[in-house]
Amino acid sequence: MDFYFAIIHPMSNTLFFYNSLSRKKETFIPIDPKEIRVYTCGPTVYNFAHIGNLRTYIFNDLLQRTLIFLGYNVKRVMNITDVGHLSGDGDMGMDKVEKAASEKGMNAWQLSDYYLEAFKKDMERLNMLSPTIWEKATATIKEQINLISQIEQKGFTYKTSDGIYFDTSKFPEYGAMSSLTNDGIKEAARVDFNAERKNPRDFALWKFNTTGKKRAMEWDSPWGIGFPGWHTECSAISLKHLGNPFDIHTGAIDHKETHHPNEIAQTEVATGKKMANFWLHAGFLNAESDQKMAKSKGNFLTLQSVIDRGINPLAYRLYTYGMHWRQTAAFSWEALGGATRAFGRLQVFVQENLPNSTNLPNYDDRGSAPAGALPQFKERFLQALSDDLNMPQAMAVVWDLVNTSKKGNFQAEAVKLLLDFDRVLALGFSQIIPIGQIPENISKLIAEREQARASKNYALADKLRDQIQKLGHTVVDKQPIVWYNRQALLV
Ligand code: AMP
Ligand code: ZN
């Protein structure tokens, strides 16, 4: 039994998160209020991230930002899976990175670096904070071998012809958060079959190279040449940087069934201590057809394909706030169009009401918010965030603030508060330039573009928009027209 000394942080609201471990919403009590430790399962870098993956990482970013907004220091660690994730997510099949590299005629190391850079670029375009620590699976082989040795010393492993396996029958708590019944596990194991496995839930800690060909990524180990199982890296990396127990472990719902139960089994057997207090699992974003969106299925949209349709990546970010992070939902171009228009309205509202905008009366002359109005909006915003990161509710507060300020003529104060909220929303409000401060060369191009649009010369208008973009500025039309082409939606 572990005992934690808990102090509620003086700056924080009471926070609630739905914890997959207890299957209910719980009050969040930090283990050490001086620093909250969070672990995020990172991407498998064998292809571009799709917008479903990115929705999960936006949720992770919101979590990090909200904790910071509430006054906490946060140490968030994210792994990069560049080895060991096999097609089918189980213990059979080819390594996803090695397979993609051979298909593309690339080296596995180069391929994973390429997609890692692409992922980082997507994170930047979506205004995500960097985790405190990134760690590649291939950079922690020593730690992973040590972890497997510890599990072996405790008598929880056995050897088959293709690897070292974890014996789940010796860990009765196995799969506490999984919704899979034994029948479901057997069915999954039937597809992903290894006859030597003692129990369908057993999983590989170390895999031998059984292909007869040298892999680009393989290492010597006490058990023979091979590579770590997919689950091993997350236990080793979290132990290395966060110890255990740590506060929050995040992922998406697919991890609840196998990957996370396996991580828990590894860490808790190796250390004899709980792995993490809170387990947060994000809902999936399905394809428009409501089928699972998956890199392995090829039915996915990348962020670039959204941008190619003229949609600002931050409009996609706003789109994800329309759903609760735990809700699984089908992607919809119509809903993304609505979010794009809403995003444009918010940007225009901020720009028109930023102090220093020349089209406004002097900031000091503007009406001020009725006493108590702004703290009340901030309180409601904080309440929405604190209640299991309820973003639809937080956005309702944002719109209420915008509309109420227009009626009460306290827009400039509302914008100041929006800039504060943007530390969590990350919609780029702080990068908006007041109208009076737009550089002269940009103003000239904007005026030319307005003229081109007025005379319906859209080709020229687009060219000017690109030119402005190259100079580091983005034009937002007051009523952005979003047009959807249902063809060629897939990358
Ligand atoms: P992967 O790169 O496949 O390891 O996945 C990266 C992250 O995206 C993991 O947290 C997955 O659980 C999550 N994920 C995978 N597919 C989806 C989806 N369709 N919607 C939301 N998250 C997903
Ligand atoms: Zn993981």
Mean pLDDT equals 88
Strand content is: 5-15%
Topology as H/E string? EEEHEHHEHEEHEEHEHEEHHEHHHHHH
Please provide the count of β strands: 13
CATH topology of one domain: Rossmann fold
> In the CATH hierarchy, what is the class of one domain?
Alpha Beta
Q: What is the CATH architecture annotation of one domain?
A: 3-Layer(aba) Sandwich
How many helices in DSSP terms? 15
Low-pLDDT runs: 1-11, 360-366, 479-491
Helicity, as a percent range:
40-55%
Which overall shape is indicated by the principal axes computed on the Cα atoms? globular
Structural class designation: alpha/beta
How would you describe this structure to a colleague?
The protein has 491 residues and is of the alpha/beta class. Among the domains are: 2-286, 3-Layer(aba) Sandwich (Rossmann fold), CATH 3.40.50.620; 438-491, no CATH class. Helices cover 41% and strands 12% of the residues. The protein has helices spanning 51-69, 96-104, 108-125, 141-153, 182-191, 232-242, 259-271, 303-307, 313-320, 333-353, 373-386, 391-408, 411-425, 440-454, 458-470, and strands at residues 16-19, 24-27, 36-40, 74-80, 133-136, 157-160, 163-166, 203-208, 226-228, 246-252, 276-282, 285-286, 329-330. The strands form four sheets. It has a five-stranded parallel β-sheet, sandwiched between helices. Strands 6-7-8-9 form a four-stranded antiparallel β-sheet, covered by helices on one side. Strand 3, helix 1 and strand 4 (74-80) form a beta-alpha-beta unit. Helix 9 (313-320) packs across helix 10. The chain is globular and about 70 Å long. The chain starts with 15 loop residues before the first strand and ends in a 21-residue tail after the last helix. Residues 1-11, 360-366 and 479-491 have low confidence and may be disordered. Bound molecules: adenosine monophosphate and zinc ion.
